[in-house]
Amino acid sequence: MLRVALLGGESSGKSTLAQQLHSGLSTQGIDVHTVPEHLREWCERAGRAPHAHEQAAIATEQTRLIEAARAEVVIADTTALVVAAYSELYFKDRSLWPAAIAAQRSMGLTLLMGLDLPWRSDGFFRDSPAVREATDALLRRELRDEPRHDLLREPPPDGPQLSAIHQSATR
């Protein structure tokens, strides 16, 4: 099983890339499962953004959903790292980082979105391009010191799932 994490701030293209990868891999006959962003679903159900004391449970549930998924390729439309970044950004709470980083280490491939797409409001939860940039900076800070994080730039060395992901991502 290959777990692929898509990371980035709001309106950075995570969900769109997740859909495109899922479609491209499925078309190639690869068993793929996409884990949606639990934070977004939580906000839609609650009709509001979470409070500081709710962040840990949201991060834990995102990790649980990823770990429970079974397929040749599991695409995570974000991980607990993004929840940890938001927790630091909005609440000055850094306590979620250790567990989020530990969970991130189970990912076979981490794709960190760039800031090159235009920011788009969703009319509900997205705050601003400045929040997206601040989230990106926090994620890059935390990933920078990790011994294992991969940004997809070159074709992967081997493995049919990695080659299929590269082909789907570069179309």
Polypeptide structure, described:
- 49% of the residues lie in helices and 11% in strands.
- It is globular, with a radius of gyration of 15 Å.
- The chain has a four-stranded parallel β-sheet with strand order 2-3-1-4.
- The protein has 171 residues and is an alpha/beta fold.
- The two termini are 23 Å apart.
- It contains seven helices and four strands; from the N terminus they run βαβααβααβαα.
- The protein has helices at 14-27, 38-46, 55-68, 80-91, 97-104, 129-144, 160-169; strands at 2-7, 32-35, 73-76, 109-112.
Strand fraction equals 5-15%
SSE-based structural type: alpha/beta
Please trace the helix and strand order, writing H or E for each element. Answer: EHEHHEHHEHH
* Overall residue-averaged pLDDT value: 83
Question: Strand order across the biggest sheet?
Answer: 2-3-1-4
Overall shape: it is globular
Number of strands: 4
| Distance N to C terminus | 23 Å
Number of helices, counting only DSSP H or I runs of 4 residues or more? 7
Largest sheet: 4 strands, parallel
Which stretches of 5+ consecutive residues score pLDDT under 50? Answer: 149-158
The amount of helix comes to 40-55%
Q: Gyration radius, to the nearest Å?
A: 15 Å
Could you write a compact summary of the structure shown?
The chain has helices spanning 14-27, 38-46, 55-68, 80-91, 97-104, 129-144, 160-169, and strands spanning 2-7, 32-35, 73-76, 109-112.
How do the strands and helices of this protein lay out in sequence?
Elements: E1 2-7, H1 14-27, E2 32-35, H2 38-46, H3 55-68, E3 73-76, H4 80-91, H5 97-104, E4 109-112, H6 129-144, H7 160-169
Parallel strand pairs: 1-3, 1-4, 2-3
